[in-house]
Amino acid sequence: MVHAIPGVEGFMYPNEVELQWGLLVVVYPYITGLVAGAFILASLERVFRVEAVKPTYRLALLTALAFLLVAPLPLQLHLGHPERSLEMYLTPHKESAMAMFGFVYLWYLMVVLLVEIWLDYRADIVRRAQSETGLLRIVYRVLTLGSMNISPASLHVDERLGWIMTIVGIPSAFMLHGYVGFLFGSIKANPWWSTPLMPIVFLFSAMVSGIAGVQGIYMFSMWVRKKTIDMRCVDTIGTYLFYAFIIDFSLEMLDLLHRTYESSESFASLDFMVHTRLFTSQIVLQIIVGTLVPLAILAATQVLTLAEQTRKRMYATASVLTLIGIFFMRWNVVIGGQLFSKSFLGYTTYKLEFATREGLLTAGVLMILPLFILWGLVKLLPPWTEETAS
Amino acid sequence: MRVSFQDAKHLISLVGLFAAAVGVFVILRAAVVPAGFGKYGHYRAGAIDDNRARAVKFAGQGECVYCHDAQLQVRDSGRHKTISCEACHGPQAKHVASDGKEKPAKPDVIPLCLNCHEKDAAKPAFLPQVVKADHYTGTTCSDCHQPHNPKM
Amino acid sequence: MRKTRREILLSAGKYILLTGTAAAGLESLTGTASADTTTPASDGYKMADHWWGMTMEVDKCIGCGNCVRACSKENDVPEGFYRTWIERYHVKEGDMEHPTVESPDGGMHGFPPTSTPVDKSFFIPKLCNHCADSPCTQVCPVGATFVSPDGVVLVDQSYCLGCRYCVQACPYGCRFIHPTKNVVEKCNLCYHRITKGLTTACCEACPTGARKLVDLKNPKDPVHDFLRHYKVQVLKPHMATHAKVFYKDLDGSVR
Predict the structure, then answer these.
(1) Do A149 and B10 make contact, defined as CB atoms within 8 angstroms?
(2) Does B31 share its domain with B71?
(3) pLDDT for C60-117, tens place per residue?
């Protein structure tokens, strides 16, 4: 009786068959999550004076910047009319969560992150503006903004102001990613998204991915540079990752429990989806491979006394698995939220394309691009503690 | 530590940079925001006119009476009296605008009738319905039923 | 009388003027208003005097697809997308949560006949509900979609970014992205017609009068009697969108 539309099972409203938001909209919250998480890790050292994570402080800031610069690109690319995106700043609709993105983003990029990085690096910038030659000298001279004053008193001012910026930065980082969660969580038409837990779950998963990301990047860069990894640092980060992950996982389980117990209108539909179309990405990749396994690994490092080499391998594995898990968490939210009909009577299929504007290739480039930017930033503003000390 | 103004002077260029950026934004905003934006609400007032600008294709029942009185009298005497001409004859704005010179296509009778009158459990009881296989005799509907007043 | 008017109008030779008189014709057809033959032309339209909506008499819908086809022609709706569509419901006795629903091509070419009337079955015509508290206009980041002063949810296609947030926010599945214009597209209640005194293309083409354009601000509109006398419902009332498409005889299984 029911007419077959390829990929559709049951009934979809006729305009619903095609998904509106694809892979790029998965990549976008993933990247902003890494930004917020990396910044929160950096601020631990600054505000809470956790000396152990100091080796990653500047690296975390630069990582946050590199990813933040790329964050709007997936959104830009998915717009039907990218040339009109400036309207978001010119006539922002105050009732729209999305309109506020532009301002949260600008505030975070321009005020918080750039100012904090500039203040922290100012002494280095001034020194290199004097010691470098050629084009680099000009670059550093521009970055000094015209002041060569690095007297202890002026650096003290920077230190105090930087501290204030970090204090401002923590709620800003929360806002940046909490907002992304709100963007989904406030859509009452979509029961998969519409929950007040969404911003909180997004925040904690952001912290988890950011911490795992910085951990991975730190260990990888040390390996590339053939330097010794500061074990006290990675152990501490591993502990934070473990705790943040436990909170994140508890929140997600709370959400799941709540939905299952309430069994409201949409439950049968969502339950069916998790057992079929989302089984691989949700149960296997997000929950088992991306959460339970890294949690078990991290738990083992907390409980057991293990050799240094073993711990390094475990941290590296946990980081990579965590990043995969959080990616699929985003995937399940964004794609999962569009696979069922708002009539709760049917399901559609997401067709992932490869070499298109919103395809896999673009997403891959966007994921790798921040790493290249980070490489450039690291060359320009070396974050390594052993070098700045010398 | 004692801090003099001199030691915070480098921050002035930082503040200046932000002030300049905000200034550019404000000027750009004033220059680029379309005229009429915000007149009725948070949107471009001209968008309302844009929506009105489309050409009408269904002329509306009010137009038909001027020339097709005879047919309408037939229609009004039968069960099809609630049906507008264009429901079956299609959009006729061009026909009206050309003062009848633009001739409408003849409706494809059998499918047209079956759109409404093919038997379906979901159709309301007031509607006369036929099962095509039982009812159809090899002629067209209009051989027996005058479409403007379909009573036999 | 008729003849002289016709002569005047034809000598004017402008179609836009003709549409003004159509209002009078339409009103006599639906019994709306007095037979005032001096109905002003379209320029006299005042947004503040209107608040548009629609009524649906579910028991009159025969699922013929005339509305879908008319809408498609009037508004050049791209193939495979629908500003209005019809759904056919089959509900097994008392099983409100598991109706079987189908809408092949939005009902544009009618429905394949079902012969065995074991289940309760009926047609549901749908379109944008022109919600007064519309979640779709709320989320638009730039003000490219909005509720007009006369209560129609419109799109500014020259301003829309194509971000698709509004498509996500509509609980009824009424919005889609135009495949070539890359901006959002939806029912605008034939705004170009209703502001000239005509009814919408779908209502014009509906053979049974199941759907009627209504003006909630017009005291003479029969909608007031309709809403006073019948038990009516809007779609998904729990969404609290202040929808203005009112369904009479709506079954509880419809979503």
Answers:
(1) yes
(2) no
(3) 999 999 999 999 999 999 999 999 999 999 999 989 999 999 999 999 999 998 866 6
A149 has a chain B CB within 8 A of its CB: yes
Q: C19 falls in which pLDDT band (50, 70, 90)?
A: very low
Residues B72 and B112 in one domain: yes
Residue C115: what pLDDT? Answer: 65
Q: How confident is the model at residue B1 (pLDDT cuts 50, 70, 90)?
A: low
Domain boundaries, chain C: 1-44, 53-248
Q: Are residues B77 and B113 in the same domain?
A: yes
pLDDT above 90 (res C37): no
Question: Quick one: what percent of chain C has pLDDT higher than 70?
Answer: 82
Please check whether residue B48 lies inside any domain of the structure: yes
Residues B44 and B16 in one domain: yes
* Mean pLDDT for the stretch of residues A200-213: 96
Is B66 in the same domain as B140?
yes
Q: Are A26 and A334 in contact (CB under 8 A)?
A: yes
User: What are A208's two structure tokens?
Assistant: 């988890």
Question: How much is the mean pLDDT over chain A?
Answer: 93
Q: Which residues 80-99 on chain C approach chain A with CB closer than 8 angstroms?
A: 81-82, 85, 87, 90, 97, 99
Tokens of B151: 């009573």
Instruction: Please report residues of A whose CB lies closer than 8 A to that of C182.
Output: 80-81
Q: Within chain B, how many helices (H) and strands (E) appear?
A: 9, 0
Q: Which of C6, C143, C188 sits opposite B42 (nearest CB)?
A: C143
* The pLDDT value given to residue A3: 52
User: Average per-residue pLDDT in chain C?
Assistant: 86
Q: Would the pLDDT of C15 be above 70?
A: no
Domain membership of residue B115 (yes or no) is yes
pLDDT of residue A380: 95
**Which tens digit of pLDDT belongs to each residue from B134-149?**
887 788 899 889 999 9
Q: Are residues B41 and B79 in the same domain?
A: no
> Angle formed by the axes of helices A115-131 and A152-185, to 10°?
140
Distance from CA of A1 to the nearest CA of B (A): 13
Number of domains in chain B: 2
How confident is the model at residue B4, as a pLDDT? 83
pLDDT per residue as tens digits for the range B11-51? 999 999 999 999 999 999 999 999 999 999 999 999 999 99
Mean pLDDT of B85-94: 96
Contact C163 A79 (CB under 8 A): yes
Is B132 in the same domain as B72?
A: yes
Answer whether A147 sits within 8 Å of B29, measured CB to CB. no
For the domain covering C53-248, report its CATH number.
3.30.70.20
Share of chain A above pLDDT 90, in %: 86
CA neighbor of C191 nearest in space, from C109, C128, C249:
C128
Q: Give the 3-state secondary structure of chain A.
A: CCCCCCCCEECCCCCCCCCCCCHHHHHHHHHHHHHHHHHHHHHHHHHHCCHHHHHHHHHHHHHHHHHHHHCHHHHHHHCCCHHHCCHHHHCCCCCCHHHHHHHHHHHHHHHHHHHHHHHHHHHHHHHHHHHCCHHHHHHHHHHCCCCCCCCHHHHHHHHHHHHHHHHHHHHHHHHHHHHHHHHHHCCCCCCCCCCCHHHHHHHHHHHHHHHHHHHHHHHHHHHHCCCCCCHHHHHHHHHHHHHHHHHHHHHHHHHHHHHHHHCCCCHHHHHHHHHCCCHHHHHHHHHHHHHHHHHHHHHHHHHCCCCHHHHHHHHHHHHHHHHHHHHHHHHHHHCHHHCECCCCCEECCCCCCCCCCCCHHHHHHHHHHHHHHHHHHHHHCCCCHHHHHC
Task: For residue B140, give its domain range.
Answer: 61-144
Q: Between C102, C106, C169, which is nearest A187 by CB?
A: C169
Q: Is C173 on the interface with A (CB under 8 A)?
A: yes
